[in-house]
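USER:
Working in pairs, take the chain set out below, taking as long as you need, and write a paragraph about the fold.
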Amino acid sequence: MARPVMTAGMALGLLILGAAAMGISPVFVRQAEVGPFASAFWRVFAALPLLALWAMVERRGQRRRSAAGRMPVDPRVLGLAGLFFAGDLAFWHLAIVHTTIANATFFACLAPLWVALLSRMTIGEAVGRRTWVGLLICVPGAGLLILQSSTGAGSLLGDSFGLATSLFFGLYFLAVRKARGGLGAGTTTLVSSLVTAAILLPIALYSGEELLPATSTGAMNIAALGLVSHAGGQGLLSIALGVLSASFSSLVIFVEAVAAALFAWVFAGETPQPAQIAGGCIILIGIFVARPRRTIPASSRRVRDDATGVSGR
């Protein structure tokens, strides 16, 4: 039986679902009954059993198929992916503490800029003109969506932490894209998550925060944070990165911001302002401009359009 073909359109759909799964994470974090660093650790750790099952099923399926076309992956790439995601979460929480949430979120949304700037020199993947245009449309849209909600002034230190967040998340995209050239999405997400959890645990312990939730409600939100936002969100992102370029996939950050605003409206009663609605619409226009032009088989590694990357990785 022929292996099902993953097209760029299908990957884009999974990318949007992954953005929604990551965008709902603030709802779970607010109800987790633990500190921010502890919630970052639990987000990754709680997902490990499901990711381990996924990787096991994935490995069995790969044994039945020819491994031809798979490139060997340097284990250090997976280690770096885990390190970069740990840096992303750690600096994100530092930014929230030292600047406004709006500023922290906006600077974190600049990850696609780092991906576009570093893509060619790190993983040899060119960034197409359509992706650049879409990115330049999305950035001001993110400004309208996020900064409109600001109720205070930021700080240079906190804003710097937010910028560091975006750098680490951008590097995470590049590392996962590189790993997906030779590994399945389940294995990539599992191994990188193990590294992330190992780094975040001592950080959470050293912070002195409450590590365990006080009630079953908090425990359920931690479980949802791991299963939905990490296993679901990062897992779907990893699947998409096997087909779509890192630069286009990183635009999921902007989709996540739109999803987060929608979930805040639904679950927290935070009604979006007209400028925020306009910002969200601008982001969606930018994604539409940068979208893949046509579907591409997952087995293909050659340049076909602006969003599908390059061959030989």
